[in-house]
Amino acid sequence: MNLKGKKIELRELREGDMVLLNKLLNDPEIAKNVVGWSKPITMYEQMTWFHNLHDDSNIRYTIADVKDLDLAYGTAIISDIDFKNGSCGINIKIDNAFQRKGFGKESLSLLINYIFNELNLNRINAEILEYNIGSQKAFESLGFIKEGEKRQAIYKDGKYNDLYIYSLIREDYCREGNR
């Protein structure tokens, strides 16, 4: 199901989106701000990954312009879905050219609503690097609570960095008047 906001729509991944995804994976500025490690990915590897997604249990979206669904800004993912325990992970990547325009926050808001009101989950987890202040502010503005940190958990730029653990619980989300 596509998720429609004011400026963006979260729509299905398309084969044509693989150019953007490849750019996001290979961009050193984006790689610096996301969890995990990066290696150069060829378009062949990107397309092979795309064609093998039928076994993927994650929910993957392309962040697209609400007026032109072919204009893609980034990706949004609901991962580690655990229906028994009512939890999942959430993350987004946005092309540098489209950052600081509110697309990330709107994407998160749409995902949160979908997770709580359609998937009927209870908890959303997020992990954010200690120096990614923009992401911390976006998640906190939507009600996420910093629960703790994993010390020196992620190696980037020649040093080990702390990883902050965030969560949003349905009860807290509803208490703020969201539904």
Describe the structure in your own words.
By secondary structure, this protein is α+β, with helices and mostly antiparallel strands. It has a domain at 3-125: Gcn5-related N-acetyltransferase (GNAT) (Aminopeptidase). The protein has six helices and eight strands; from the N terminus they run E-E-H-H-H-E-E-E-H-E-H-E-E-H. Strand 7 and strand 8 (159-169) form a beta hairpin. The longest helix has 15 residues, at 103-117.
Give short descriptive properties of this protein.
eight-stranded mixed β-sheet, alpha+beta, single chain, globular, about 180 residues, Aminopeptidase
How does CATH name the architecture of one domain?
3-Layer(aba) Sandwich
Largest sheet: 8 strands, mixed
> Beta-strand percentage?
35-45%
| Structural class designation | alpha+beta
Number of helices: 6
> Class of one domain in CATH?
Alpha Beta
Widest sheet, order of strands: 1-2-3-4-5-6-8-7
Low-confidence stretches: none
What average pLDDT do the residues reach? 92
β-strand number: 8
CATH superfamily of one domain: Gcn5-related N-acetyltransferase (GNAT)
Radius of gyration: 16 Å
- Large-scale geometry: globular
H/E element sequence: EEHHHEEEHEHEEH
Question: Which range best describes the helical content: under 10%, 10-25%, 25-40%, 40-55%, 55-70% or over 70%?
Answer: 25-40%
CATH topology of one domain: Aminopeptidase
N-to-C span: 18 Å
